[in-house]
């Protein structure tokens, strides 16, 4: 019985061997010249997009016999061949293909050895950007642009953008007060910017930068938009006047105006220059009724004015008979005392009674000037109020 089983096993093995040989013979009909030999393929394929170009990148990890790489696209109607010189380590292949048509392209990458054996094909997709994409780009909207000539600061506020467009930064170019050019990059997720030491009378320009995808080689830009900013030469010149610190009741200091210590004679010498009067803020100088005298008290603002002709008109002046108040314009950051107005001021006017007053002056070059009020108010009950606008005009 055991011999019978052995005989059967041998027959089955022979049959299996005969069947295997039959299949091998069938395979040899298709590979009559011998077994297929494949060259090592390109690994880690990446297709970097770009402006009318792509960068094909990959690594060669094995097979030192690789001598050539061919890259096909456009249904194999277009191709490029690159010779390969292998080293003993892992080699990186980088092929820049230029002058390409704007489109999404499918690529095939094949390597060859020196006898023509090829690798398995590696497939990849890359995007080529061109005029269509460029023409679709919009510059970032700007909501606010204002130059305060007082401290030469340009305040900008930009709107939001669709981030799927690839917008990532706003490039701003401007000149400073010394005529030097500057460039600033504002991230697309930031909206507000203040540029210091800005040149009065100049324009700034800006454009938006785009990277359409994370593998893009090239940065795209919109055309520059050039803007002459709105210029504010003085602040808080409109009745009712805004206050900074105040005592919560009547006295305070006016916002954006500088008051010297002689003006601040209320609230333990903390407040002065501003009064809440009949529910409205006014500019104020006052002596008496418990307030010490004001001696060369000054309420003033400093700005930088370009060459030109100017007029400042003060409306709504209300005052008592005692004391003296002048409105003056002077170079620098300080108004002169009353006794020096004739020799140190550019111009001035004596606000002797209630009413409206104005001064005219001219500048031949950009000049830092200070404007405002100089008052001497005795403590016998004297007062001076501005309950109207201070109007600055460029003639």
TrEMBL record:
Domain of life: Bacteria
Name of protein: DUF5013 domain-containing protein
One Pfam family in the UniProt entry: DUF4998
Protein's organism: Parapedobacter composti
DUF5013 domain mapped to chain residues: 235-372
Taxonomic lineage of the native organism: Bacteria, Pseudomonadati, Bacteroidota, Sphingobacteriia, Sphingobacteriales
